[in-house]
Design a protein that fits this description.
This protein has 4 helices and 11 strands; from the N terminus they run ββαβααββαββββββ. The chain is an alpha+beta fold. Among the domains are: 47 residues, Ribosomal protein L9, N-terminal domain (Ribosomal Protein L9, domain 1, 3-Layer(aba) Sandwich), CATH 3.40.5; 77 residues, Ribosomal protein L9, C-terminal domain (Ribosomal Protein L9, domain 2), CATH 3.10.430.100. The strands form 4 sheets. It has a 4-stranded mixed β-sheet with strand order 4-9-8-6. Strands 2-1-3 form a 3-stranded antiparallel β-sheet, with helices on one face. Strands 5-7 form a two-stranded antiparallel ribbon. A hairpin with a 2-residue loop joins strand 8 and strand 9.
């Protein structure tokens, strides 16, 4: 039994090809996705010639989309944005900041970005600043700075940090007391 199938694309399919491409795909992908939705059919010379005009239009659309994305990347590169989230006193978020959250915030700022184009190297679960990559294509990507801030003021940690010497012994620090403020002379009555 054949594991792959050769099909002619009748519509543009992300990460596969554009109209008029003849592609090799796995049988399950063809049977469960491409064929039922009408995105592909069995290739023939007649169909390829019929789809020639549609392919030219698709190539022009892809070129225009690429140019639009390049312009968007120049605007996005080195952008800094802030997202406010609820957190505990240590700065740990109650939820995480997701790709959908970042894409929605960018869209709200006027940059149309899909969630799958936002690439996070790790889960964002703390109040801090993070570098986020927005990748449109293999060679089209922008890097933005994301500041995640608390929705309230956090209590400062007033505890002293402990220090240890080379042998692992605790270094005891003398707490310097602030000098008492000089007493004010009593006002003459």
């Amino acid at each position: 039994m054949a594991r792959t199938l050769k099909l002619l694309l009748t519509e543009n399919v992300d990460n596969l090809g554009i109209v008029g491409d003849v592609v090799n795909v796995k049988v399950g992908y063809a049977r469960n996705f491409l064929l039922p939705r009408g995105f592909a059919t069995t290739p023939s010379d007649d169909l390829i010639s019929q789809l020639a005009d549609k392919r030219k239009q698709a190539e022009a659309d892809v070129a225009a989309l690429r140019k639009q994305r390049q312009a968007l990347i120049t605007k996005l590169d080195a952008l800094e944005m802030t997202i406010t989230r609820a957190c505990n006193d240590q700065g740990h978020l109650y939820g995480s900041v997701t790709q959908q959250d970042i894409a929605a915030a960018l869209t709200e700022l006027g940059f149309p970005v899909k969630a799958r184009e936002v690439r996070l190297a790790y889960t964002i679960k703390r109040i801090d600043n993070f570098d986020v990559t927005v990748k449109f294509d293999s060679d089209l990507e922008a890097h933005i700075k994301l500041w995640v801030e608390a929705d309230r003021t956090l209590d400062e940690d007033d505890r002293d940090e402990m220090e240890f010497d080379n042998e692992g012994e605790l270094i005891v620090k003398d707490k310097k007391k602030k000098p008492a403020p000089a007493e004010q002379p009593a006002a003459a009555e």
